[in-house]
Amino acid sequence: METQPNNPLHGKTLENVISELVGFYGWKMLGNMINIRCFTHDPSIKSSLKFLRATPWARKQVEDLYVHYVTNKKK
Q1: 25-30, long-range: CB < 8 A, 24+ apart
Q2: What tens-digit pLDDT sequence spans the chain (75 residues)?
């Protein structure tokens, strides 16, 4: 297994990523930052996972936000 020490997503599940972002930003702010229904209407981890696993463009937005969050958190 190849290690990726500079990749903030390495070893993180999508569930971990969403949970961390929700813990930091909250559902309301997350929905404002990434305007997708699973974040703005009756949000839950389960519904978000289902949608993001089936929608590559939305998952990319979430992963990009997570990378931004992690790199700025270290500063």
Answers
A1: 25/69
A2: 456 667 888 889 999 999 999 999 999 999 999 999 999 999 999 999 999 999 999 999 999 999 999 988 766
Rg for the chain, CA atoms, rounded: 12
CB 21 within 8 A of CB 69: yes
- C-beta of residue 10 within 8 angstroms of C-beta of residue 4: yes
CB 34 within 8 A of CB 58: yes
Cβ-based neighbours of 10, under 8 Å, separated by 6 or more: 3, 4
Contact present, 48 and 3 (Cβ < 8 Å): no
- What's the rounded Cα separation, in Å, for the pair 6 and 1? 15
